[in-house]
Amino acid sequence: MRICIPKKIRDYGFEKLSSVCRWKTSDWDEDTTSMSWVRRIIFKVCRFRRCLCCACAPILLMMCLGVYVTIAVCLSMAPSRVSEQLRRTKESYAMTQNTVDGKFTAPGLRSGPEHAALPKTFWRSKLEANNTGLWNRLQYKMDLLHSSVLNSGKSKWQRFRHRRKLIPMLTKIPGSKCVISQESLEKALPDFQTLPFHVREFIPRMLCQDFPLILDQPGLCQTGPGKANSSSPFLLLAIKSQDENYEQRRVIRDTWGKTGQMRGMKGRGGLVRRVFLLAKSGVRPNRTQEELLQVENKQHGDLLRWDFKDTFFNLTLKDVLFWRWLAHRCPHAQFVFKGDDDVFLRTPALLDYLREAVAKEEEKATAGLKHDRSLNDFLVGDVIALAQPIREKDNKYYIPESLYSGTYPTYAGGGGVVYSGALAMRLQAMSERVRPYPIDDVYVGMCLERLGVIPKHEPAFLTFDFPEGEEEHHCAYHSILLVHKRSPEVVRRLWAQVLDPPPECRNTSLRLEPTPKPPASEEKAEDAPKVKVEIVKKDELDIMDLM
Length: 547
Hints:
Layout: H1 7-24, H2 37-47, H3 49-77, H4 81-97, E1 99-100, E2 103-104, H5 134-145, H6 156-166, H7 182-188, H8 197-202, E3 213-215, E4 235-240, H9 246-254, E5 260-262, E6 270-280, H10 287-300, E7 303-309, H11 315-329, E8 335-340, E9 343-345, H12 347-367, E10 379-384, E11 411-420, H13 421-430, H14 440-451, E12 456-457, E13 461-462, E14 482-484, H15 488-499, H16 520-523, H17 543-546
Parallel strand pairs: 4-6, 4-8, 6-7, 10-12, 13-14
Antiparallel strand pairs: 1-2, 3-7, 5-6, 8-11, 9-14, 10-11
């Protein structure tokens, strides 16, 4: 016991206690029977003083140490006024330094056209969610549902209750959990009954994204076990079509949509695969049409068909479901072209364009340079910025303000767009967190905004046709990658020119800006061969004419 106490402390304690005991017991008799009870206690303590000192000293030392640690911890957890004032000063300075045009950017992030503003969302400019459209409110609650900050300290049961509170308007019909009830819709949208039919048809099922696949192509990108990499396409053509568009699909298979190893105009090209994205054309099944589709699919093996109604507002579902199919069936595709079945695509020139993009990235990687635009963010097309929703009820693109409020993000025209396979996987993951929107190309722009990806504008993509007078140029069709709204007959003639271009047009570069209209003397020249192009007449107004 004496070893556990330092020698000086032990001797000091013994000396003090011994002096007290000698002073107290100097006049006491050896007979303790006549002592009072207080003196008896003091006598016993003095008698066993050495044992008590050895037993109590460690306890006292530990108590002092505990008091010291407690005070130190409390002082460290309570910041001083000086440190708090310094922290606030740093935060205010960071806000002033990282604010560009009223938008906050995180410290260390460069501001410029290559970087998106971080915290502000394009669909919600006010904190009062009740003053915005239905889509905005549902998307805001979806953001809360997936917020890592709000859900970090919650249990599974709390997150489940949080999910039920966020979306109270879902009906409880078995098998239709994604359908919004009519009663809640009328409360959320007072003007629901006055909306056009195609809008009223879309809104109740705007949350539905799970539909079975009727026609599948499981072996499109894989010829056997363990051969996924050898048969993965360099370019996968995903073409949106309708059940009755047999002629468009037949012409595409014979022209720019051929599958197999395709050479470029100048380079080696790459492996091309093709799928058509279909849905049911009507509520009532057409037996003859179903049989024709089965025969077509058995002959060509390139149809993907889902069990939902094929309408203009449901084109977004084709994007979402195609991304899921791509992640499952063809995840190693290097690039994806997504377009309509009435476009003309110069596939060999597009292969050269993509090969050049890959070569630039490889050169940067070899030189050890930083990538300015990685292929993970690669998306090119006819980019549209600062677009506004159409508010005219007679228009095909009409979106009521009660459904969506705000401006559109930057997006690429849906007639034709090319993005990397890596970006397609990211789009598939982001589609789980962005509510479906009735216009497909705008929806892709919303997902890109959330990913922080800025689409690259390519003037060679003409999703809204040539500018006035430019089509009359002799080599106009040899300077583009894509043009929208062409009939099957015109596509065949244009493809023949791609296979055998005129000598003066073989080295034509891609268009960078609108070509000036040729002079009158050149228009009347008889020796200059002209290409007569029949453009499909549009029943509806073009979206660019209304923006």
